[in-house]
Amino acid sequence: MVIDMVLKVYNTMSRKKEVFKPQQSKYVKFYSCGQTVYDDLHIGNARMYSNWDVVTRYLRWRGYNVFHVQNFTDVGHLTDDADQGEDKIEKRARLRRLEPMELVDEKIKQYWRDMDELNMLRPNISPRATGHLIEMQDMVKSLLDKGYAYEVKGNVYFNTSKFKDYGKLARLKLKDLKAGARVEVDPDKKHPRDFALWLKAPDNHLMKWSSPWSKGYPGWHVECSVMALKYLGPTLDIHAGGIDHVPVHHVNEIAQSESYTGKLFANYWLHGAHLTLKGEKMSKSKGNFITARDAIDKWGAVPVRLALVSGHYRSQIDFNKGMMETAQNSLERVKNMISSVNSQKSFGRKSLKADINSHEKEFIRAMNDDFNTPKALAQVFQLVKKVNKLLGKASKKWIHAARDKVIELLGVLGVKVEVEEQGDVSEIVDLLVSVRDKARKKKVFKISDFIRKELKKQGIIIEDTSKGTKWHY
Ligand code: AMP
Ligand code: ZN
Question: Which pTM value belongs to this model?
Answer without folding.
Answer: 0.88
